[in-house]
Specification:
It is a single chain. This protein is 83% helix and 0% strand. The protein is mainly alpha-helical and 104 residues long. Helix 2 runs antiparallel to helix 3, helix 3 runs antiparallel to helix 4 and helix 4 runs antiparallel to helix 5. 31% of the residues are buried. The mean pLDDT is 84.
Length: 104
């Protein structure tokens, strides 16, 4: 958490991943990895590193598949990379999750 608080996202992600090796089913650690992966992906997307952004958004989804924003962001990266099927799948999953989430 210290690295994250200092905005050193690469070290924070490495630290969380190392902790996950010791406790691979820890939901809190998985969620933290997902958040940091998403933040790094947003930076990569902004800097035009689309492939890396797509991979990091996918890692965020793997860490916490309950966050629809991760799917939308991955779809944006896919769209900018011109990967049509991935855009469609990410948007459909996002819409499904958002609809399910709003029901309860």
């Amino acid at each position: 958490d210290c690295f994250y608080q200092l905005s050193n996202l690469h070290f924070a992600l490495a630290d969380y991943r190392q902790a996950l090796e010791l406790a691979p089913v820890d939901w809190t650690l998985r969620c933290r990895c997902a958040v940091v992966s998403c933040e790094l992906a947003l930076l990569a997307l902004h800097e035009g590193r689309l492939g890396q952004a797509h991979e990091l958004f996918s890692a965020a989804i793997d860490g916490n598949p309950k966050v629809s924003r991760f799917y939308v962001c991955r779809a944006r990266a896919s769209h900018e990379m011109k990967v049509g099927v991935s855009v469609y799948v990410s948007l459909i999953l996002s819409q499904h999750m958002h609809t399910g989430h709003s029901r309860g």
